[in-house]
Write a structure and sequence with these properties.
The chain is mainly alpha-helical. Helices cover 63% and strands 4% of the residues. The strands form two sheets. A five-stranded parallel β-sheet has the order 2-3-4-1-5, sandwiched between helices. Strands 6-7 form a two-stranded antiparallel ribbon. The protein is globular, with a radius of gyration of 31 Å. Helix 16 packs across helix 18, helix 27 runs antiparallel to helix 28 and helix 37 crosses helix 40.
Length: 832
């Protein structure tokens, strides 16, 4: 069954021009990659490693059903960010208190995909460690790395990328068959692109052969040389290039010959530029990819007016110094090849204007970050598409954010760094980059800079939000309290966000009374400050707290009030409220309203590509469809949700989908499958630190009790153990297989359906109620007190109290009333 989320499409860029030569190399590499797990293409800069890897991946794409994925690492200076970069490209989010490499390995274990790690040499140890993890835990993943040195991991095959084929001697074969040699074919192809009518012939073939030999068959150097045919003859190019090499003869004699040659080619190309072109090229080196508007804002000044930037940029593109990657929402995007960028960086440093340009780059990125946060995502507004594009752009600019943050950190500019962090807080959460955001916040908050107390206070509150996302509630409490104190001491009344964080922490701590008190204070503070966004969020949190306590009608009214507040302010907030309304409607049994709310929320989530929210919403739709006996919609919604949750490494979302599939299996008269899936969901909840979520244990018992009656206590316990022994991927595949058209033929197997990952032990199952606990739960439903239960069972009240505490923990409830309601067959509230 396919999904509407393209999680396995890959991300290979379109080739900017035709690929020339290397037919024998590609044939050898394709054969090699069919036999090895990790292939590293090694060679100096400019040899064509990246282009060869992309062509190889393109040729092999149909062998990898889960996609071929390019991860560019050239701008990742911090080794600790390598895994984060890979996770971001693959859409896998980090989990709290768990190494990201483990989450990546689990998410990729069942995938048949090809991963390209491009330009690894500056973080080679981190790349090697990641590849080691992937090779050890993901049997179907293949890795192609490009690097100037091997990764040196077990299982790696190193393949040295050779120069393009060269004519061996002056004249001879080259003149007889000029298209025979790859280097000459490349020169002719690129020269034809910049000068119509250019062709290899008797008048230039010897000069082209000489030029290609002089450049040692280096593709980048040949392309740079070919770009000059617009202004020079081939003889002139060859002569000037040879002269330039002579000038470098007294340079670094320890450098490899090819590096000297490539340096000469780039240096020579730079010297042929006009002065404005030189200035623009070196200023562009501060970017890790850019748009025209970015270049105009950062690179323009009195020497290069903004109106000149486009023409200069086109000129640099013509001369193969700037590459146009592809059309993206909002316009074309540009970048410098790595070698050119390194060269331009050195030229910028020598120019004396490096810090000024870096500062302008930092300020520009700060403006973009603030625009992302300040834009209201209001669906139906004429600017909605532009704003969605701006929000999605946050992921595209990751490398530029890091560069801007690094500039501020290097200068000790705490205020600018904190402003950037505050602007990026929302994208960090949405894109799953919370750990990176925590690191940057902590660095800047530790700087001694003269930051206004109110700003530092708001920064601490934002830091609390990131801690909350990591489920580090103690840190969230500490930062929120400190932030509120700073804001209040500075006379800043805009502290609703800090109060909201305290309310959420109280809710997670199991104190709904304190949560309600704090959220009411939040709402009052937001209204006093005219903060519509915080007022709406506060109302939404209040509705969730009330719903958790069983006040469904009040929760619905509160959600509707939040919707009225947010409808003209923020589409993401509206989606959150609609999801909450869907949960309340479902708990009240109003399935039509629940389905309508969930679908409206899903449409908004899809537009901003909020993947965890998409998966969560699909589970809600699955539950409602199941209640309506629409098994087709149930299966399709849950399948998409499970595949998306698994691909992004979110165990709790996987558990929720498995629980729904378990109910569906019970409905389809397949108790064995139902119990196994319930066990798998329980294990995932436990691993994710969420085994006590409200109602989770109760739903488990609802599945287990009829299974015990039909299959017996021992068989049910064994099946539960089998489910707990499954990996997340095994459980997802097992669940999805149940949605196939042949399920009716398999649903009367009497509990004997087999699956991968069979377990052999029923020991250590703390979540299933014991017979005694089930007996006491029934007495609670009859209204007996602990003393009454103790008298009837002839046991001590202390023993009864321990049993009652165990029952509440296992069912995920907080009161005896919830136990009584559950035993009476009433659903206690929205699904968690």
């Amino acid at each position: 069954m396919t999904t509407s989320i393209a999680i396995a499409a890959g991300n290979l860029p379109a080739e900017p021009n035709s690929f020339v030569g290397r037919e024998r190399d590609l044939a050898e590499l394709e054969l090699l990659l069919s036999e090895v797990r990790a292939l590293t293409l090694c060679g100096p800069g400019g040899i064509g490693k990246t282009r060869l890897a992309l062509r190889l991946a393109c040729d092999l794409a149909d062998q990898f059903p889960d996609g071929t994925w390019l991860v560019e690492i050239a701008d990742t200076e911090d080794p600790g960010l390598v895994s984060q970069r890979v996770a971001a490209i693959l859409g896998i989010r980090a989990e709290p208190d768990r190494p990201l490499a483990e989450t990546l390995t689990d998410a990729l274990r069942p995938r048949r995909l090809l991963l390209i790690l491009d330009t690894c040499e500056h973080v080679v140890d981190a790349c090697a460690e990641l590849v080691h993890h992937l090779l050890g835990g993901c049997p179907w993943v293949r890795v192609i790395a490009t690097s100037r040195e091997p990764l040196r991991v077990r299982g790696e095959t190193v393949w040295r990328v050779p120069p393009l084929e060269l004519p061996r001697e002056p004249g001879g074969a080259a003149e007889d068959d000029p298209g025979r040699h790859e280097s000459m074919r490349l020169f002719a192809e690129r020269a034809t692109a910049v000068r119509t009518g250019f062709a290899l012939g008797a008048d230039n073939v010897s000069a082209v052969a000489r030029l290609c030999r002089t450049l040692d068959g280096m593709p980048l150097a040949i392309e740079l040389a070919a770009a000059r045919v617009r202004a020079l003859s081939v003889d002139q190019i060859a002569e000037r290039l040879c002269d330039r090499f002579m000038l470098l003869a007294s340079g670094d004699r320890t450098a490899p010959a090819r590096q000297q040659t490539l340096r000469a080619a780039v240096d020579w190309s730079y010297e042929l530029l006009t002065e404005p072109e030189k200035v623009l090229l070196r200023r562009l080196s501060v970017f890790a990819g850019w748009t025209l508007e970015m270049a105009e804002d950062v690179c323009a000044d009195a020497s290069i007016p903004a109106g000149m930037v486009l023409d200069l940029l086109i000129s640099l593109i013509d001369k193969s110094l700037v590459t146009v990657d592809h059309e993206v929402p909002g316009g074309a995007r540009y970048r410098l090849l790595d070698t050119i960028r390194e060269y331009a960086v050195s030229r910028l440093a020598a120019s004396g204007e490096e810090m000024a340009v870096l500062r302008r780059h930092r300020d520009h990125m700060l403006i973009i970050a603030q625009e992302i946060v300040s834009q209201a995502f209001v669906r139906g507004d004429p600017s909605w598409p532009k704003r969605v594009t701006l929000y999605r752009r946050a992921g595209t600019e990751r490398a530029n954010w890091r560069a801007a943050l690094s500039t501020s950190l290097d200068r000790g500019d705490a205020e600018a760094g904190i402003r950037l962090c505050m602007g990026l807080r929302s994208p960090w959460i949405a894109n799953g980059d919370v750990a990176e955001g925590v690191g940057w916040f902590d660095r800047f908050l530790a700087l001694p800079g003269d930051v206004p107390p109110a700003m530092r206070g708001h920064a601490r509150v934002h830091r609390a939000e990131l801690a909350f996302e990591q489920q580090d509630y103690l840190a969230a409490l500490e930062h929120a309290q400190a932030g509120l104190e700073l804001c209040r001491s500075a006379g800043d009344s805009g502290n609703a966000d800090g109060l909201r964080m305290l309310a959420l922490v109280s809710l997670r701590a199991g104190d709904p009374v304190a949560a309600l008190a704090r959220i009411d204070e939040t709402i009052a503070s937001a209204r006093a400050a005219g903060d519509v966004w915080e007022e709406g969020l506060g109302l939404s949190v209040r509705a969730a707290v009330v719903a958790r306590q069983g006040g469904l009608r009040e929760a619905q009214r509160t959600y509707e009030a939040a919707l009225d507040v947010l409808r003209d302010n923020n589409g993401w907030g509206v989606a959150q409220v609609l999801y909450g309304l869907g949960g309340v409607a479902r708990a009240r049994g109003d399935h039509e309203a629940a389905l309508r709310h969930f679908r409206d929320a899903l449409a908004l989530y899809r537009e901003i590509d909020a993947r965890p929210d998409i998966a969560r919403c699909l589970v809600g739709i699955g539950w409602v469809a199941l209640a309506q006996d629409d098994l087709a919609l149930t299966a399709s919604s849950l399948t998409e949700s499970l595949e998306l949750s698994l691909a992004t490494g979110q165990r709790l979302l996987v558990a929720r989908g498995l629980e729904t599939f378990a109910v569906m299996a019970a409905r389809m008269n397949d108790p064995a499958r139902s119990v196994r899936l319930a066990g798998a969901a329980l294990e995932l909840r436990s691993a994710a630190g969420d085994a006590r979520s409200a109602g989770a244990g109760a739903r488990l018992e609802d599945l287990l009790e009829p299974a015990r009656r039909r299959l017996g206590e021992a068989a049910t316990t064994a099946l539960l153990a089998e489910g707990r022994a499954m990996t997340a991927d095994q459980a997802v595949r097992y669940a999805i297989s149940a949605a196939g058209p042949d399920w009716p033929d398999r649903r009367n197997d009497g509990g004997t359906t087999r699956m991968p990952g069979d377990g052999d032990s029923a020991a250590g199952l703390p979540s299933a109620l014991t017979p005694r606990e089930r007996e006491i739960a029934a007495m609670i439903a009859r209204g007996l007190t602990n003393r009454g239960i103790a008298d009837e069972l002839v046991i001590s009240q202390a023993t009864v109290a321990r049993h009652v505490a165990n029952i509440l923990t296992k069912l995920g409830f907080s009161s005896r009333a919830q136990v009584a309601a559950w035993m009476a067959g009433r659903e206690p509230g929205p699904a968690s």
